[in-house]
Amino acid sequence: MPDIVIHGIAATAYLVLAWHFWNTRWRAAQAPRLALWESAALLLPLVVQGAALYRDIFAGPELRFGFAQALSAMMFLAVLMCWIEAFFLPIEALYPLVLAAAGVCAPLPAFFAGRVTPDPVSFVFRLHLLAGMLAYSLFALAMLHALLIARVERRLHGMPGRDGPLANLPPLLSLERVVFVLIGAAFAVLTATLAFGMLYSEAFIGRAMRFEHKTVFVVLSWLIFGLLLIGRWRYGWRGRTALRWTVTGFVLLMLAYPGSRFVLEVLLHRA
């Protein structure tokens, strides 16, 4: 089956489910909890996209990875973690946004092949790649949770409108704890990603770190999230302060690999 068809099936399923959750959660006066059939339906695009990503990145004769594969894998893992989290917390309010984003990102690898990695068999490089994808998805999920908290806080401060799915959310303090658990886990994984990248770079080119756009943005993002965690632990940062730091760190992270690779692959036509 052609790649465009496989990725198209996953994208269509994500977008249909995003529309379904928008209609039944955000537009409805009362938002029901996640039904068993809805949870099962989410598995279809996850399985299809997961198989397509594995074939695109790891199962081929050469390991290809670029901005399209990074964004697609990031949203695949974010949806998967949302699906797991929904068994423990009522977070259906996140589904329209995360599924719509996944629907946009899922077909990108069919149009942008990415670059052939210089050393596709290196175990350290594969660890670096997998850790990076996991870190990106954890930070993406943390930012979505932070944006949801900001929406709830605005509603609590008198923003008019129906509660809808917001009425079923866990308490704000519980959601904030989830956000910082996600950020803490993502920070640890990002630290491992940097370590694996330095080991690989040292072995492959003889230098632990190269001064380039990707490296600068990743290190800046790492510093931002590290300071955010220190601020939470030392000064109890929360609310808008935490949101600003989270969004800033995530934007810098997106400018790192996906942003730099987009410029090279699409704007400059360089692999």
Explain this structure.
The chain has 271 residues and is mainly α. The protein has one domain. 74% of the residues lie in helices and 1% in strands. The chain has nine helices and two strands, in the order ααβαααβαααα. The chain has a two-stranded antiparallel sheet with strand order 1-2. The longest helix is centred in the middle third of the chain and has 34 residues.
What structural keywords apply?
single chain; 74% helix; 1% strand; globular; 2 strands; mainly alpha; 271 residues
- Assembly state here? single chain
Strand content: under 5%
**Tally the helices: what do you get?**
9
- Kindly state the mean pLDDT as a whole number? 85
Q: Which shape, going by the Cα principal axes?
A: globular
Distance between the first and last residues' Cα: 26 Å
Provide the succession of SSEs: HHEHHHEHHHH
Write the layout of secondary structure elements.
Blueprint (H helix, E strand, L loop, with lengths): L2 H24 L9 H22 L6 E2 L1 H19 L9 H11 L2 H4 L3 E2 L6 H34 L15 H34 L7 H23 L3 H29 L4
Antiparallel strand pairs: 1-2
Brief summary:
The chain has 271 residues and is an all-alpha fold.
